[in-house]
């Protein structure tokens, strides 16, 4: 999607694409980060909604109508009891129920090619790692955008049984160009999981653009499908039997040695 501050257009685009993907056979659909509103910090703040607001209600109703699992990208979740909002992803199940809620753990406070992003100005991080269960019992791990750069999150999701990893994103144009596919395939290979990554594309606000290339990677790191460089969708079958075979023939997860792993007790700065 190329979401902007135009919430009416964003909703219409999301519905058109979700319906098209479901008509094409999709049983799991993942929307991008901040699919309902993306733009300036002021537009994001104005578009914040409570968890039971119109965007989540729309996702629940559409998931129930189409009988799909819908990972409703993420929204800016308004929290009246906090000074800042959350960046929140919701899993709506085929019965229309909310099956899981994940709040982005890692905030994007960086400078990319001269553009400064500071999500912490208006948002606060979540505190929980979240996995959920799809209609067929398959476990799915939830993450959002910048989380992709923290492999420990995905390893924990995998060790907790996730076989599919969903990543709604609004990766910048520059980081999509240089890092996106490499990081996605790495997370797929090292965890022997499917990765379903839905990225924004195009300009959202002056000087702020995303790079698209939404893709689905398998547990071998093979890219099964990529969306075109425009609003659209990618579609692929997630062959769980192939995943089992990969894990059996190359049992890297079974070869882990947790007893040998320990987090450093001090930082390099403190040691120096």
Outline:
The chain is of the alpha+beta class. Helices cover 29% and strands 24% of the residues. Strands 8-9-10-11-14-15 form a 6-stranded mixed β-sheet, with helices on one face.
Question: How would you explain this protein's 3D organization?
Answer:
With 272 residues, this protein is α+β, with helices and mostly antiparallel strands. The protein is built from seven helices and 15 strands. It has a six-stranded mixed beta sheet, with helices on one face. It is globular, with a radius of gyration of 18 Å. The mean pLDDT is 95.
Tally of helical segments: 7
In CATH, what is the class? Alpha Beta
How many angstroms separate the termini? Answer: 47 Å
Radius of gyration over all CA atoms, rounded: 18 Å
Low-confidence spans:
none
Helix percent reads: 25-40%
The strand count comes to: 15
- The CATH homologous superfamily name equals Carbon-nitrogen hydrolase
The largest pleated sheet is described as: 6 strands, mixed
- Silhouette: globular
Structure characteristics:
alpha+beta; 5-stranded mixed beta sheet; 6-stranded mixed beta sheet; Nitrilase/N-carbamoyl-D-aminoacid amidohydrolase; 272 residues
Secondary-structure blueprint:
Layout: H1 7-23, E1 28-30, H2 41-46, H3 54-66, E2 69-71, E3 75-77, E4 86-92, E5 98-103, E6 109-112, E7 115-118, E8 131-133, E9 139-142, H4 151-159, E10 164-169, H5 173-191, E11 194-199, E12 201-205, E13 208-211, E14 215-217, E15 223-226, H6 240-249, H7 268-271
Parallel strand pairs: 1-2, 9-10, 10-11
Antiparallel strand pairs: 2-4, 3-4, 4-5, 6-7, 8-9, 11-14, 12-13, 14-15
């Amino acid at each position: 999607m190329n979401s902007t501050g135009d919430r009416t257009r964003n909703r219409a685009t999301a519905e058109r694409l979700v319906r098209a993907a479901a008509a094409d056979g999709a049983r799991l659909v993942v929307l991008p980060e901040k699919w309902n509103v993306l733009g300036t910090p002021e537009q994001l703040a104005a578009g914040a909604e409570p968890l039971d607001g119109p965007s989540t209600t729309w996702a629940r109703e559409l998931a129930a109508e189409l009988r799909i699992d819908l990972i409703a990208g993420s929204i800016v979740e308004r929290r009246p009891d906090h000074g800042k909002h959350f960046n929140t992803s919701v899993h709506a199940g085929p019965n229309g129920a909310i099956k899981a809620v994940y709040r982005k753990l890692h905030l994007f406070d960086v400078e990319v090619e001269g553009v400064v992003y500071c999500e912490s100005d208006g948002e606060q991080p979540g505190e929980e790692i979240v996995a959920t269960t799809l209609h067929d019992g398959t476990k799915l791990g939830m993450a959002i955008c910048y989380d992709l750069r923290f492999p420990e999150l995905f390893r924990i999701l995998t060790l907790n049984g996730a076989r599919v990893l969903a990543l709604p994103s609004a990766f910048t144009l520059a980081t999509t160009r240089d890092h996106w596919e490499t990081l996605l395939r790495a997370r797929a290979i090292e965890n022997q999981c499917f990765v379903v990554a839905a990225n924004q594309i195009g300009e959202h606000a002056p000087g702020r653009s995303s790079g698209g290339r939404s893709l689905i990677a398998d547990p071998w790191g093979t890219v099964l499908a990529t969306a075109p460089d425009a609003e659209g969708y990618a579609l692929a079958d997630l062959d769980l039997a192939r995943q089992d075979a990969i894990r059996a023939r190359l049992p890297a997860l079974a070869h882990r040695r947790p007893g040998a792993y320990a987090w450093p007790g001090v930082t390099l700065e403190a040691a120096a």
